Amino acid sequence: xxxxxxxxxxxxxxxxxxxxxxxxxxxxxxxxxxxxxxxxxxxxxxxxxxxxxxxxxxxxxxxxxxxxxxxxxxxxxxxxxxxxxxxxxxxxxxxxxxxxxxxxxxxxxxxxxxxxxxxxxxxxxxxxxxxxxxxxxxxxxxxxxxxxxxxxxxxxxxxxxxxxxxxxxxxxxxxxxxxxxxxxxxxxxx
Length: 190
Description:
The chain is an alpha/beta fold. It is built from nine helices and five strands, in the order βαβααααββαααβα.
């Protein structure tokens, strides 16, 4: 069984995925794979350098993710370009990990699950949601100012649409224990 976890930025996808992992699911963190594997690939870095120039690299030649984010979250065409570069590589990594245990229970954090039309990858989709006020507070606690938080939120499908399209919704505006109780009920029903 493969569950796809999505939701708005700051809603608690990673927390929910880690709770599924504690319940015996193998976990794939897409953001971590992008950050540590895809964006660490010399081939990808060369493509980024050729397309965006040296301005997104630091003085040692390492990718400056903040500079990259400043471009792609303000220019939709550049975001699409980066997704077209990175997503196929991410999906290859998913395939490789899933092949290690094809009959296993998997949970994949896929922030852009619906935006990228990835529903067919999963047996069930799960949306982690919270109030928009709490979402913004969490993003500010992560160090994103209000403007950057709004910018990132605006790049995603509205949370209400993700809630509508998901097979299951986990409401994460309370305690971790409340989220765990919802996950326990869901796992029991699956």
